[in-house]
């Protein structure tokens, strides 16, 4: 028997809920995705509703999929409100002389462009040197970062300044880049996406040039899942605690 919502009709996709108990695996997957899509469009309403449906469910499969849908909605809303901008490159510090006038400037050497990221979509390439971000420019010579490190302990370097500025943006923001490529300065526009949860926990060895892309991607997926799980458990514990208050 398919489950039915017992909490009234407020635009909730009851058909998607029903499909969670279908004998067809594809129906269950599609139902979960439909709930996530609905929830991401109405996060405040969905968080309360999906939690109620989860707590009322008796079928283990339905309960599990409702929990996963709720987790995705909660994590997405957290990222929307508190998420940072993301580019998707590995980088190193590099001082450059600008073509024409020879002006010395600090730059961000792109050592790798990760697939399906704002950097790739904007046309950034390995060996490009980012010499400007919006109105920001960086002086040369504060110190050279190890490839892929580029932030910790290097305040004032181009890589630190670039990373801090990007993380200060929100997902969806547009930024303008000045890029030195093949002796020419090019201008690129980039639409930032959200910085993956858990990214700061990626081992430094995987940020070095030459690290296998598949290994990097797999580690990032694992860390992102762990970060989402941990955030969701904190959120859920907070909701449970609030519900017990008089």
From TrEMBL:
Residues annotated as domain PDZ: 81-135
Identification of the protein by name: PDZ domain-containing protein
Gene3D superfamilies tied to this protein: 2.30.42.10
CDD domains to which the protein is assigned, alphabetical: cpPDZ_Deg_HtrA-like (cd06779)
First and last residue of the signal peptide: none
């Amino acid at each position: 028997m398919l489950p039915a919502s017992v909490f009234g009709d407020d635009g909730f996709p009851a058909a998607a809920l029903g499909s969670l108990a279908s004998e067809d695996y594809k129906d269950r997957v599609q139902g979960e995705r439909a709930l996530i899509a609905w929830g991401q469009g109405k996060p405040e309403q969905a968080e309360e509703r999906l939690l109620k449906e989860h707590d009322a469910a008796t079928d283990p499969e339905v309960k599990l999929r409702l929990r996963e849908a709720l987790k995705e909605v909660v994590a997405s809303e957290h990222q929307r409100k508190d998420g940072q901008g993301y580019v998707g490159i590995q980088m190193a510090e590099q001082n450059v002389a600008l073509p024409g006038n020879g002006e010395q400037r600090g730059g961000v050497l792109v050592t790798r462009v990760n697939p399906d990221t704002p950097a790739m979509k904007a046309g950034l390439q390995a060996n490009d040197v980012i010499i400007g971000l919006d109105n920001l420019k960086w002086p040369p010579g504060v110190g050279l970062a190890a490839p892929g490190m580029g932030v910790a302990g290097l305040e004032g370097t181009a890589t630190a300044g670039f990373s801090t500025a990007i993380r200060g943006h929100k997902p969806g923001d547009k930024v303008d880049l000045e890029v030195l490529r093949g002796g020419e300065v090019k201008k690129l526009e980039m639409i930032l996406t959200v910085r993956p949860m858990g990214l700061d926990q990626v081992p430094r060895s995987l940020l070095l040039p030459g690290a296998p892309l598949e290994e990097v991607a797999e580690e990032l997926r694992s860390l992102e899942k762990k970060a989402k799980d941990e955030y969701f458990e904190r959120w859920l514990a907070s909701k449970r605690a609030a519900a017990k208050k008089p």
